[in-house]
Amino acid sequence: MLWVDKHRPKTLDKVIVHEQVAQNLKKFVAEQDCPHLLFYGPPGSGKKTLIMALIKQMFGAGAEKVKMENKTWKIDTGTRTFDLELAMLSSSHHVEMNPSDAGFQDRYVVQEVIKEMAKSRPIDAKGKRAFKVLVLNEVDKLSREAQHSLRRTMEKYSASCRLILCCNSSSKVTEAVRSRCLNVRVNAPSEDQIVQVLEFIGKKENLQLPFGFAARIAAQSNRNLRRAILFFETCKVQQYPFSPNQVPPPLDWEQYVSEIATDILSEQSPKRLYSVRQKFYELLVNCIPPESILKKLLTELMKKLDADLKHEVCRWAAHYEHKMRLGSKAIFHLEAFVAKFMSIYKEFLVATFG
Amino acid sequence: MSSDIRKWFMKPHDKNAGAAKPSGTGTGAAAAKKPVLSIPEKPAPSSVSGSQDASARRKTSKYFAPKTEKDSDVTDKSLPKRKLHKSSDQLEDDSKPLAANRVLKAEEEDDDDDFVAPSKRKTPVKPPPSKKLKAASNDGDEDERMDEDAKTPSKAAGRGRGRGRGGRGAVHAKTATPDDDVGGGEDRMDEDAKTPSKSTARGRGRGRGGRGGGTAHGKTTGLDDDAEEDRMDEDDKTPSKAAGRGRGGRGAGSTPGGRGRGGGGRGFMNFGERKDPPHKGEKEVPEGAPDCLAGLTFVISGTLDSLEREEAGDVIKRYGGRVTGSISKKTNYLLADEDVGGVKSNKAKDLGVPFLTEDGLFDMIRKSKPAKPPSNKHENNSNSEKLQKSQMKSSPVKVEKRAVEQVSTMDKSIASKSEIASTNNQKAKVVDRGSLQWTEKYRPKVPNDIVGNQSMVKQLHDWLKSWEEQFLHPGQKGKGKKQTDGGAKKAVLLSGPPGIGKTTTAKVVSQMLGLQAIEVNASDSRGKADSKIEKGVGGSTSNSIKELISNATLNYSDNRTKKPKAVLIMDEVDGMSAGDRGGVADLIASIKISKIPIVCICNDRFSQKLKSLVNYCLLLNFRKPTKQQMGKRLMEIARKEGIQAQENVMEELAERVHGDIRMALNHLQYMSLSQSVVKYDDIRVRLNSSAKDEDISPFTAVDKLFGFNGGRLRMDERMDLSMSDPDLVPLIIQENYINYRPSAVGKDDSGVKRMNYLALAAESLADGDIVNVQIRRYRQWQLSQAACFASSIVPAALMHGNREVLEAGERNFNRFGGWLGKYSTTNKNKRLMEDVHSHILASQQANVDREALRLDYLTLLLRQLTGPLKTMPKDEAVQKVVEFMDTYCLTQEDFDTLVELSKFKGHPNPMDGIQPAVKSALTKAYKQGSSCRVIRSADQINIPGMKKTLKKRVAAILEPLDESLPEENGVASAEGDEDEASDAENDDELAPGDSKPKLDLQSDKKKGIQVHLDLKTNGNGSSAKKAPAKSKASGSAGKAVGGSAGKRKR
């Protein structure tokens, strides 16, 4: 098993990084009740870990008996009926799902699953925990319609159901939904915290960490704890005992993106643009989300860019990222960004060096 | 050799046409002037004059650019030598050897080719003999050739070019012919080569011309001429496809690196832009006597002084002349204002065709105005005489023949073609104009009246004739499954564009065979029979078809000899839709049981609706008749109706309606209401506006948008082009816009401007994508124009110009949009990824989302999976990897997915360095493990969007576990004990290592299998008891099996 899973804290007590948050959550466990929660924070900061730990502690082992199923809902929109399928993880106490997978029909999923949950309200002799928890992932990717339908159902069925929403950016969750939840910000762990975690793991695994090694990994992980631990293990696989100046190998796709950045900077021509398009396709085909590509590409370009251009290039990157979200064919927008960059950069080069 | 020179001339001209132009035009024009002007003074009346005439012109060659002597060694070579030479030039021109081969063949087949009936020779287009350059004895042949030549109007241009190629190849050899100063390459500019840059052509011409001039004399061998002619004929006969290919190959001329003759597409962008005439619009087109050019055939070459080529063509046609794309013996004049030394001019010199300048043409027209100037060699009166004569001659024999036409004559498809106006004028005038529609009035009565497609008519005829023997052998009556030979089909499907006589053919043929035609078309209900059919015909009208085909009384009463047999004509089968639910399926069923032949008719054979029907039918594809074929028929009708018209006018009409003879007749009838003389201009004006829309392929549309003249298109034209396929056109544009060098950029050394244009175009494409989302997702279809504007028109307007190749080995044609393919691959991979993801989730070891799985996990996962296989000893490695896979519930497929997803082009394959032996050992070990592997849970999970059937897999997994079925109860109870024990042991422990999972495989009929995975640790009493109970239930149901905790333990 990978370390990142092996050493995942199973209870709120064992959490190292977000101790403060964990302490607060423990109060809910003590109360055996909780409001709707909205966890938000960058990837690899520990949202899911906290949520799962919370649920497990609140419901005990019952929450661990999980089954994975592919549920079908019959949706009747009035004009037509259709079946909607969605994979979900469920136990007798909670349901976890990713409603944005349903595309633009996500709102039906949200409504239906909550209603169904309300119907099968668990009966508890002690009158406690008479609710189920619905964990919705990637709420920021929910369509606006789904979020609107969420806001009413959240209140209506609050007696029988608690929502735990999980997302990367709370800004994409509507105000109305946000105000109905207790917002829990899970920020990215600081590098010190990451080092702390890595050392903890190192101790558990009986490893000798050279001085500064953990710090180097932490720096490279971009404050993503998951990535840091994965890097750590990659290093272990790569070479043990660690050499003092060992660096983890880059992620395959990041490496590819930085190659693209080098390509772009070395030549700005239609031909190069064409070859860059091929490489973009390569990345997209390999399931790399276009947003990540654009972001990584921009960081790579920034490294070698003249200070004068940085501001403009950033602006265009933002422009095209925005358009990319509005549109559906990511490659068009990626390419447009590269074309724009080439045009700006070439002009700059010609103006500077003639 | 010549191609090298061409290149040299082309590049500089392309880049800075302005700089190179002045000198080019100066010398070129000056040089060209002379030979051209010399024509009127040099009548060249006899057949011998070929060389003389040429020699006169040869003198002018000294005006051309300095000559190279290189070619002089090939001067006296005759045909074989030329062939050799050509093949040596193969690099530049792949099609040449082919052409050369064809020459030989054509020569042998010469007689066979001239299959036109003798009566043809009396066509009115015959030019006056004085103008002939060949011996009079050749006249007949020439005419035939001409007809052959022009038979395919749409093809003519392409043909011209294709031939041009061969012609150019021949240039070296033909330097023997003294006319060579008007060099090759010219043909490239013929009217269809939309955009040849004039400067390049001229440059080329000059270079070659010079060389040609150097090689002083030679012989114009008759052999050569014939060969040329024949080849031309050959070319004509090849269908449009071949022509297209030739053209495509031609495109290679502008780009080095041979592409051969592959690929369709018109490749506009490959040609330099033809320049505007230098004095455009400055000269006034003179008025002339009507039909003053009648009977003359012109070929236009190069850029004229003041007229666009199309205009020049119009002028000629207006005065009764005719314009062809390439030179043949019948050509009277080559209209050219400067000698650019192309194939056309070479050929003209070979054949002794005189040159004519634009001014000369105007003079000719002007002179005709007052009276008939004697100096003019082609007086209109002589022509009209000729015309008259031909009409007189138009054989009465023919009429008779037609009357007695019989079935057996059908295969003489040419016969009908050769039928020209069989009634004389006087008679025509008597014809009163009834109220009957002409389309009905002149509907063909016998098969030979049908214009074109005679072979189809014949096939249909044969099929109908043999139908009965084939399918209704006595004794085998009833079921229709006895298709005696595999190829025979019980029904026939006629397809082709509207208005070319499909329905008529079906009717006429069946009539001729004495079959009673029952026509069912879209106006009849053709839906699927409902169950009430038993109630009889009165109860339901919906199934007349079934009635028709199965009701014996209709066809075969007892005395079947007397009753006429029937044939069912299903018209407009592709129109079977909405109202005719299940119509096609029902039709197929009908075909199977039918006792009478069924003829189906449709426009689009490739329609989705007809996919199934096509398998049951003999396919007969009707083509548009050529404009000559149609022209003749129209002339005939016009005469009968007393309309005066030239044949070329009728041909023009035929061309404008794109082969739709019904439409042509309608137009003609309409025009006949107001005028009795139809002139060329009438047709032009009338049909310009109401031109029939033609289907345009997305590639053609993109070619046009990006083409050199893309900037000159009107906005509505662009709109039409990009709307021709609003889905595909933007994709093709997006795929290819990078390849174009925008002509709007002009001088751009650094490439900055082009880059800016690219950025703008890309931005616009991205906008188009956003608008498209609005359209699709929110159904804002009113935005479709905006979408089309942003995604097609703006990028095309920015980038239109010359296409260039970005990758070595790529062909210079627009690629198909790559997005579709990549999108589908992406989706496939996403599904696979989702598979892996759910497996990992089901393993309960990790709880990651998909993105993190791909972005962060994948690298390490792969390392864990492949690393040991590369470094460790085989058995150990395999064991380790299998263990790891089991931990995360990864299957063999997941393994492959992970490998697949981390493959990047240009990066090493993650599987490199793994011995095949190790790989197979892994597979083996994994398969072995699967028998005792209880949790293969995630396999069973249906992933949304994945429509694969799981049955087989489920069976494979369940099998080994079946053995445990009988002891299910025992296990369950044992589990219960264990549970309690473990409860006691680990109260609060949640560590996964201590978990003793037990699982249920519950099968659910609808959903495949649902996996229930219980992690039993410190479960309280109720849950612990519930679980065994459940497994019992499922065990007894016998649908699924549960495993024991012991087995599961790892």
Question: What is the compact description of this entry?
Answer:
The complex is a heterodimer of chains A (about 350) and B (about 1050). Chain A is of the alpha/beta class and about 350 residues long.
Can you put this structure into words, describing what you see?
The complex is a heterodimer of chains A (354) and B (1050). Chain A is α/β, with parallel strands linked by helices and 354 residues long. Helices cover 53% and strands 12% of the residues of chain A. Chain A has helices at 3-6, 19-31, 47-59, 106-119, 144-156, 175-179, 191-204, 213-220, 225-238, 252-266, 270-285, 290-303, 307-326, 330-353; strands spanning 37-40, 67-76, 81-90, 94-97, 132-136, 161-167, 182-185. In chain A, helix 12 (290-303) packs antiparallel against helix 13. Chain A is globular. In chain B, helix 12 links the parallel strand 1 (297-300) and strand 2 (322-324). By secondary structure, chain B is an alpha/beta fold. Chain B is extended. Chain B has 43 helices and 15 strands. At the A-B interface, helix 3, strand 2, strand 3, helix 9 and helix 10 of A face helix 33, helix 35, helix 36 and strand 15 of B. Chain B: One of its GO terms (molecular function) is DNA binding. Chain B: This is Replication factor C subunit 1. Chain B: Pfam families: AAA, AAA_lid_RFC1, BRCT, RFC1.
